[in-house]
Amino acid sequence: MTPVAETTPALLRVRGLSKHFDHVVALANVSFEAHAHEVLGLVGDNGAGKSTLIKIVSGVYRANAGEISFADRRVDFQTPRESRAAGIEVIYQDMALVDELEVWENVFLGRLLRNGLGMIERKRMIAEAAHLLERLGLDSLSPTTQVGYLSGGQKKGVAISRALYWDTRLIFMDEPTAALAVVEIQRVLDLIKTLRDRGVAVVFVSHNLKEVLATVDRVMVLHRGQVSGIRDARETSEDEVIRLMMGST
Ligand SMILES: Nc1ncnc2c1ncn2[C@@H]1O[C@H](COP(=O)(O)OP(=O)(O)OP(=O)(O)O)[C@@H](O)[C@H]1O
Ligand SMILES: [Mg+2]
């Protein structure tokens, strides 16, 4: 089988990205591509630069050097709002869900649907949220449940459905399975594959290499801010990835 990376055009292209915080080099000359219909694993030891990379692409931090292009356009997002408007979402471990609000309110947070008269369309949003949850196989979840009552895995589901609703083309997931129960981890991994099958480009960060190799199409390894290797998931092994994480090739 031909790797996905060779059959679909790149959605995200990163070239020579570097970032330092004072004297700490967080990223050094990082280049890679992410594709629609593909899950790219991003692994590396603590402090390797994974979160920094995500924050630069999504407009949280500014790079010191390098170029980013998204959907064939050179981009330089100044804020997360700008990257979101372009179709890039980030799901962090501590996702920005509001516990006091209901599921549908979280899906439409900051972007409430209004009718022609400017009135908030509550019923429509509840119906849209129910439809989304169903599409993701989360139909046991009611859109009017308060998010504070949900399990960690269900919250990830809400965050993912929010991303899906807003026509997301690229999703970064920074350790979405950390601190979840086994069944919930499986659920999130299945959602990642669902997103991929719907044509989204997914970049998935995890410290669990078994989980990564079972989920991703390609895996990129960072070591002290540098790319130490990019491998087809079917053609590598945990041992090789660990060696790359330690900086050997
Ligand atoms: N805002 C910041 N100010 C100063 N240094 C930072 C900042 N953010 C990250 N760093 C440093 O940059 C390096 C890369 O950190 P980063 O958070 O990207 O690593 P990571 O690969 O996500 O690690 P982990 O697996 O532990 O989440 C580290 O040395 C870190 O201390
Ligand atoms: Mg991190």
Could you give a quick summary of the protein structure above?
With 249 residues, this protein is α/β, with parallel strands linked by helices. It has a domain at 11-87 and 169-245: Rossmann fold (3-Layer(aba) Sandwich).
Can you walk through the features of this model?
The protein is of the alpha/beta class and 249 residues long. It has a domain at 11-87 and 169-245: 3-Layer(aba) Sandwich (Rossmann fold). Helices cover 33% and strands 27% of the residues. It contains nine helices and ten strands. The chain has helices spanning 4-7, 50-57, 80-86, 103-107, 122-135, 152-165, 182-197, 209-215, 238-245; strands at residues 10-21, 24-35, 38-44, 65-70, 73-75, 88-91, 170-174, 201-205, 218-223, 226-232. The strands form two sheets. Strands 6-7-8-3-9-10 form a six-stranded mixed beta sheet, sandwiched between helices. Strands 2-1-4-5 form a four-stranded antiparallel beta sheet, with helices on one face. A hairpin with a 2-residue loop joins strand 1 and strand 2 (24-35). Helix 6 (152-165) runs parallel beside helix 7. The radius of gyration is 18 Å and the shape is globular. The mean pLDDT is 90. Adenosine-5'-triphosphate is lined by residues 21, 24, 26, 44, 46-52.
